[in-house]
Amino acid sequence: MRSYCMKHNETAAIHTRGQELQVYRMFKSEGKTAAQIHEAVKTLPGWEESPYWVRHGEAWQKLKGEVEARVAGHSNQCHIACRGITWEHEPMLVHVYKFDGDKYLKVELIIPSYDGFLPVLPLRSITEALRCHEYLVPEFIAKPKPPYAGHEMRFISLSEYLSREMPPDLYASQCFPERPP
Questions:
Q1: Per-residue DSSP letter, 13
Q2: What is the pLDDT of residues 44-55, one digit of tens each?
Q3: Could you list the residue range(s) of the whole structural domain that residue 136 is in?
Q4: pTM of the prediction?
Q5: Is residue 180 domain-resident?
Q6: In what order do the strands lie in the sheet with 90-99?
Q7: What was the pLDDT predicted at 174?
Q8: 15 vs 36, which has greater pLDDT?
Q9: Which residues contact 100 (CB under 8 A, 6 or more apart)?
Q10: Over the range 57-95, which residues count as b (16 or more CB within 10 Å of their CB) and which as e?
Q11: Is residue 24 part of a domain?
Q12: Which end of the chain is more exposed for a tag (fewer CB within 10 A), N or C?
């Protein structure tokens, strides 16, 4: 999982806004990329099929509503997709948008909080989000751009996030040694 995260460390990042984990990537805005995303999102099961839906579905719908309201509040933000999905049994909100005149398309996966049957390590959550990103936009469709290319600077790298969030006493945490003071 560490290797997978390091593979994407230069082309994915974590938004530092909000309480939920938000893993995003950017791509050059092209019709074929948006079409691929629409098709890929349609093939995935909805988050209503998650075993956690009964307990957390109302909160997830509220999260989706907040994201959609934020988009509606920006007069120059173009909505491309916003759908709750289940990826590898994990709920995620796919949020895809761009700003008018911007040459980049933003693909954001928001992982809502929920009480699972077992605890999930941040490393696993990031890895699953990256795999979902690759499914939504395979590299043969579009190559991801660095997260700082024409985007706000409120993000941190994957390795920085994992060094902060992984439990310090686990062996797996030694893969991300930069711990904050």
A1: E
A2: 999 999 999 999
A3: 2-175
A4: 0.89
A5: no
A6: 77-87, 90-99, 104-111, 21-28, 13-15, 155-157
A7: 61
A8: 36
A9: 76, 77, 78
A10: beebbebbeebeeeeeeeeebeebbbbbbbbeebbbbbb
A11: yes
A12: C
For 38, half-sphere exposure in the C-beta direction (CA atoms, 13 angstrom radius) is 8
Least trusted range by pLDDT, from 42-46, 54-58, 67-71, 133-137: 67-71
In this prediction, residue 119 carries a pLDDT of: 74
**Would you say residue 40 has pLDDT above 70?**
yes
Burial 139-163 (b: 16+ CB within 10 A, else e): eeebebbebeeebeeebebbbbbbb
Please give the structure tokens belonging to residue 75: 């007069």
**Strands of 31-140, DSSP E:** 77-87, 90-99, 104-111
Number of domains in the chain: 1
Q: Which two tokens stand for residue 9?
A: 């460390």
